[in-house]
Design brief:
This protein is of the alpha/beta class. 47% of the residues lie in helices and 11% in strands. It is built from nine helices and seven strands, in the order βαββααβαααααββαβ. It has helices spanning 12-27, 56-64, 68-85, 100-110, 115-127, 136-145, 150-157, 163-175, 198-210; strands spanning 2-7, 35-40, 54-55, 95-96, 183-186, 190-193, 217-218. The protein has a five-stranded mixed β-sheet, sandwiched between helices. A two-stranded antiparallel sheet has the order 3-4. β5 and β6 form a beta hairpin. α6 runs antiparallel to α7 (150-157). The chain starts with a strand and ends in a 16-residue tail after the last strand.
Length: 234
């Protein structure tokens, strides 16, 4: 089974949705062998790559028209959802940066079959540890911890290599009906928009394994996701 996932590193529902997907795969009695391919998406593509980091709270207040009380309430709810799944979403530490460089690193990691561990390390770095996922030293450390060739990674980060792949991913997702992230596509048969309930993932996995090739079908209504226009994650 091939599962393509459009997501962004700074998207909390992408972290939540991945955790639900992994749980559903682990619980499946069919013990499916899933090939996960990461697809890039940027919630804040216009945030300058050389701009200093800004706290998530301040960014949402300044750019999305939300009050600080609304931001704290929204992020507190998201943190509680993460805690139930065993992941720490520390919004008081998380900072906003441009994520294109991190997406390029994920593309590079997939060449070595390391896409998922690198993606998960980036999510943890952003949400749990409050690290700058646009910083070359942070990205190089994550790459080294996942046994990627250090010099090749440094050359990647010093160039614009794989930027075209990032842009192509975004266009491809939109052509498939993506309106927010996360967006999960199973064998190009079924699509799950958003971090839907665990049962949606379980049922989709089972039906995907049992069905023949069909036109892409969306499962359920639009689930919890991060909207690139409003910046809200709900």
């Amino acid at each position: 089974m091939k599962i393509e996932i459009w997501s962004d590193i700074i998207c909390p529902f992408c972290y939540i949705g991945l955790t639900k997907l992994e749980q559903a795969l682990q619980e499946s009695p069919s013990n499916p062998q899933a090939e996960i391919r990461w697809k890039s998406y940027q919630l804040n593509p216009d945030y300058p790559e050389d701009a200093p980091a800004i706290s998530t709270y301040d960014y949402l207040v300044q750019t999305k028209g939300m009050s600080m009380d609304d931001v704290v309430a929204m992020t507190s709810q998201l943190s509680a959802q993460g805690k139930e799944l065993g992941i720490a979403l520390n919004f008081e530490k998380a900072i906003i940066v441009n994520t294109k460089k991190a997406h390029r690193l994920i593309h590079f990691a997939q060449q070595y079959e390391k896409g998922t561990p690198v993606k998960k390390a980036l999510l943890k770095a952003h949400f749990t540890d409050g690290l700058d996922v646009n910083n070359n030293d942070v990205l190089t450390e994550i790459a080294t911890q996942n046994n990627l060739p250090t010099e090749a990674v440094k050359n990647l980060l010093a160039s614009d290599e794989l930027a075209y792949d990032v842009a192509q991913d975004i266009q491809e997702g939109v052509s498939l009906g993506l309106r927010g992230v996360p967006f999960f596509v199973f064998d190009r048969k079924y699509a799950i928009p958003g971090a839907q309930p665990l049962d949606v993932f379980r049922n989709t996995i089972n039906e995907c394994l049992a069905s023949e090739s069909v036109p892409l079908e969306r499962r359920g209504e639009e689930g919890p996701s991060c909207d690139p226009e409003t910046g809200k994650c709900e």
